[in-house]
Design goal:
This protein has 70 residues and is mainly alpha-helical. It has two helices and no strands.
Length: 70
């Protein structure tokens, strides 16, 4: 009976360590994702020209066809 309690205790301890490791990895992945999203948002903000600078929208028909002669 004592051996069963010791084995159960060790099993529970190992399970707890495994769960803590999984949580740590998940937190690191979430932090990395948040950092990447923040960086992407900063890139979009710097790459998007303001409406007053850009002027009118370009003609949507331009660039629809490509004529190639060989």
């Amino acid at each position: 009976m004592n051996m069963d309690i010791a084995a159960l205790s060790m099993g529970l301890s190992q399970m707890q360590v495994s769960q803590q490791a999984s949580i740590s990895v998940m937190k690191m992945a979430m932090e990395t994702g948040t950092e990447q999203m923040t960086d992407m948002m900063a890139m979009v903000e710097t790459a998007t020209p303001s409406a007053t600078v850009a002027g009118p929208a370009p003609d949507p028909n331009i660039g629809q066809l490509l004529d190639i002669s060989i």
